[in-house]
Amino acid sequence: MQPQQSSRLISRLIVPLLGGASALYKRKARAGPTAPSPPSPAQASASQFSAEDILGSHIRNVAGDYTEIAVRNVFPAWQMPSATAVNRVTLPPRRQFVGREDLLARLEERLKSTDGANVICLTGTAGVGKSALALEAAYRFGALFPDGCYWVDLRGNDWVEALRGLLSALGVPHTEELGQDTLALAEIARGRLADKRTLLILDNAENVVRRHRQHVLALCPSVPAKTIITSRIIIDTDDLRVDALSDSDALKLLEAKGISIADQYDDALSLVRRLGNLALAIAIMARRMRIIQPTQSCADSLRELDKSATPIDALRLPLSNTPDDSLAATFALSYELLDEPLRTAFHALSLCAPSGASVQGIARMCDITEPVACDMLRALAMLSLAEFNGRHAQLHPLLRDWAHTLPFERDALITRHAAYFGLEIGNRYQQALNSEQDPLPALTQIDAELANVQLAQERALSFNFPAPELAVEITDCLALYWRQRHLPPQQRLRWINRACRLAEQTQQRNHLANLLQAAGDAQTFCDQHDAALQSYQQALDLFTALDDRLGQANTLKAIGDVQAFRKEHEPALQSYQQALDGFMAIGDRLGQANTLKAIGDVQAFRKENEPALQSYQQALDGFTAIGDRQGQANTLKAIGDVQTFCDQHDAALRSYTQALGLFIATGDRMGQANSLKAIGDLSASRDQHDAALDSYARALDLFTAIGDRLGQANTLKAIGDVHAFRKESNAAMQAYDRALELFSAAGSSLGQAGVLKAIGDVRAFQDQLDAARQAYQRALELFTVADSKLGQANTLRALGDIAALHHDHNESEAALSWYQRALELSNKIGDRLGQANTLKVIGDAYAQRGESDAALHSYEQALELYIATNSQLGQAHTLHAIGDVQAACGQEAQALKLYEQALTLFTLAGSTLGQANAYASLGRISGKRAHFDKAIRLYASIHDLYSLARCKFYYALSVLDQDSDIARELLMDAKSLWTQINFEEGRAAVDDLLSQLAIG
C-alpha cells in the first residue's frame, strides 16, 4: 500500500464492499479446523448423522434446540412491564440479563432526555453483548414509549426487506408494491412514526450503515421518539461503548445460563477469564456444558479448551453455524469487511503479544509507513476489531485466537515481527553501549515492548522458525539485555545453547563467539563455574582466531569474574589486568570502567578499602564520562558498601541514595531492591530500626515482584535481625522461619546456616540454651558444607558465648576453647575484623572470670586490629569494655575517660545503642542523673526494651539511698518492660530488690 492511500482508508469504511458473512464459508483453505459449510440437500434430508456432522456444525436443528434451558426468572416483579404499557409486537423474547447497570443508567438517562438527541448508538466488538443490552433496555424502559417498541434485525443485509418488515408492523399494507427505493421506504416509515413516543431498535446495523448510512439516519424519527442502533462500526463520537463484562458480571451471566458456581468458584473465574469475559463466548460455553448430563464442570470445560487447537473450536454449538451459536461466524461478519491490506494489519496485530503492539511495530511488520499503519489500526478500531489509543493497539484474546485459524502469510509476518522487536529494538541497547552513549533510552524502549521482545526471542529459537541466521543474531544482540534485566539464568542458558547450535550450523563464527561468552555468563549465574570457564575459553579461542580484540578483552574480564567468585583473587586480578590492557589499547572506556569496577570488588573483598575506593572512583568517572547510568549506579552501590564497612555512614547513605535514584531511572528493580536492602542495613546499624524496617519492606516487595527468592530470604533475615535486636522474639522468629524456607527452597546452604545462627541468637536471649546450642550446631555443619570459614568462625564464637552464659568455670574453659577455634579460622582467612571481634569476646570471658590482666591483654589486641581496619564501632565497644574492667578494679577516673572516648566514637559512627550504653555506664560511675536520662531517651528512641529496663534498674540502684520513691518507680518500670519481653531473670532481680525495700 502506498502512503497516499492512507487518507482513503477511513472513507472506504462507508462505501459498499463485496461479500458478507457467508463468504467465510466459501473458502476451503484455512490454517486451522475446516470452517463449517452450509448443509447440502443430501445432508439436510439424511435421517442419520455422524458425530462429525453434529459437532462440526454441518447440520441445523436436527431435533430442535435442546440446548435451551429453564432458568429461574432473574427479574424482580417491579421491573416487569405491564402488558399494556409496551407494544412488544416486534421485540424478540426477553432473555436473562445480568450486570451493565452503569450502561443501563446512561441509556435510561438518554431515553428520558428531551434535549433533541434522538439516536443512541451502542458499539463494541462482536459478541460483547450489544444486542442483549439494547433488548434489556427496550423491556426495562419500554413504559417510556407507550406508542410502541419496534425491533429491526439488520443482520441479513437486505435493507429493503427490513424496511418492508417495519412498515408492515406499522400497519402499512401491500409493502411489496412500494418499490426498491430505500430512501423512500425510510421516509414512509419515519412518517408513520412521526410525533409518536416510540422506541426503534436497529440491531446489527454495521453493514447497512456502511452502505446506506444516510438512509438509516433518515429512518430515525425525531423526538419524542428514540432510536437505538447496535453496530460494530463506530457511528458517532457519542456512541456508548460496550466492553467485556467485569469478572463479577461474567460469573453472574454464567450462573444465569444454568451453571452453578457456588462449589467451583475458582474454576468458574478461570473459565470466564479464559473466555475474555465475552458475553457470547460465555453463553455458548454454558450451553455446551448443559448438553452433557450431569452438567459439565468448569474444570472439565477448561481442560476441553486446553485440548482444542484453539478456543474458537470449542466455542460453537453443534446445532447451528449462525453467528448466535458460533463465535467464529460472529467474528467473520466483521472480518469479511476488510480488504487485503487491512487483513494483513489485523493478522500482524494477532501475531504480537497479547498486550498488543505499537504503531511502529505494526508498520514494520506490514512494511508500510507509520501514518498508514495508524490509519489501518484506526480502521480496525472503527470496526470494533481492535482497541487503539492512537499509539498502541491490541485484540481481544478470543479475537486474537480466532485470527490464527485463518489463512495468511504467517511465516513472513513472524519473521518481520522477530526482525523488528528482536533485532532492531534489541540491537539499540548494544549499539548504545558500543558507541559509549547513555543506554537508558534504548533500555526504556525495549522495556516498553518487553512482551513482544520476549515473544520474538522465543519464536526465533523455535524449531519451525524460517530464518535461523536471524535467530542467532537476535539471541546475540539481546543477551546483554536479558542479563541486565535479570532474566532467570536457566532460561537464558536454554536460549543461548539453542542459538549456539544454530550458529554452528549456519557458520556464524562471530555470533558464536559472543554467544559462547553469554553462555559462560549464564553458567556463572547458575554456579556452574567449570562449565563457564570452558565456555569462556572456547569464546576466547574464537575471538583470538577472528582477531577480535574487544571480544578477547570482554572474555578475559568474564574469566576474571569467575576466578574472583571462587576467591582465586590473584589469578582474577591478572585476568582483569589483561582485560584492562586490551580495553585501553582499543580505547573502549566502557570496558575499562567495568574492569576497574571488578578490580575494586576484589580489593573490597580483601578489605583493601582505600585501593578499592580508588578503583571504584576511577570506574565511576569512566561511567559518568560516557553517560552510563547503570554503571554509575552499580559502582555507587559498591562504594557505599565499602564506606559502610569503614563506618562512614553518612557518606555511605549518600552513595546508596544516589545509586537508588539511578536504578529507578534505569528501571532496574533488582538494583533498587539491593540498594534499599543496603539502606536498611545501614539504618539498622545506626539503630534506626523503623527506617530500616521500612526500607526492608520496600526491598522485599521488589524481590518478590521479580521472583528473587534469595533476595527475599536475605531481606527477611535482615528483618528478623531488627526484631531480634529489639527483643521482639516472636516477630524475629516468624521472619527467620520464612527466610529459612526460602533459603531451603533455593538450595542455599550458606543462607540456611546464617538463619540458623540467628535463630540460635534469639534462643540464647530467651535462655533456651539447649535450643540455641542445637541451632548453632546445625549452622556450623552447614557453614562447613558451604566451606564458609567466616561463618564457621562466627558460629564458633556464638557457641563460646553460650558456654560463657553459664557463669561456670568448666563452661568458661569451654567458651575459651570455642573462641580459640574461631580465632584460628579468622587468622587463617586473614579476617582481621573477625580476629578483633573474637579477641574482644575472649577479653569478655576473662573479664567475667575476674582475670583482669588477661582481659585487658585481649582487649588491647582487639583494639589494635579495630584501629587497623578503621572500625570505629569496634574501637568504641572495646574501649567501653576496657572501661568496665577499670571500673571493676576501682579505677573509676580512668573508666570515665574510656567511657567518654567510647561515647565520642559511638557518636561519630552514628550508633544510638552505643551512645546509650556509654551514657548508662557514665551514669553508673558518676551517679549523674543526666547521664541516665540521656541513656533512657536513646534506648526509648530505638525501642530497645531490654536495655531500657536495665538502665532504669541501675538508675534505681544509684538513687536508692537518696530517694526510695523514685527508685521504686524506676524498678516498677523496669519490671514492666522485662515482663513485656518475657525476661524472667530481670523481673526476678527487680522483685528481690523490691522485697528488700519493703523489709527496710
Question: Any overview of this molecule?
Answer:
- It is a single chain.
- The chain has 1000 residues and is mainly α.
- Among the domains are: 77-241, P-loop containing nucleotide triphosphate hydrolases (Rossmann fold, 3-Layer(aba) Sandwich), CATH 3.40.50; 488-587, Tetratricopeptide repeat domain (Serine Threonine Protein Phosphatase 5, Tetratricopeptide repeat, Alpha Horseshoe), CATH 1.25.40.10; 596-707, Serine Threonine Protein Phosphatase 5, Tetratricopeptide repeat (Alpha Horseshoe), CATH 1.25.40; 871-926; 944-1000, no CATH class.
- Helix content is 67%, strand content 3%.
- The chain has 48 helices and 8 strands.
- The strands form 2 sheets. Strands 2-3-4-1-5 form a 5-stranded parallel beta sheet, with helices on both faces. A 3-stranded antiparallel beta sheet has the order 6-8-7.
- Strand 7 and strand 8 (392-394) form a beta hairpin.
- Helix 32 runs parallel beside helix 34 (709-725) and helix 41 (852-868) packs antiparallel against helix 42 (872-888).
- The chain starts with 5 loop residues before the first helix and ends with a helix.
- The model is unreliable at 1-88 (pLDDT under 50).
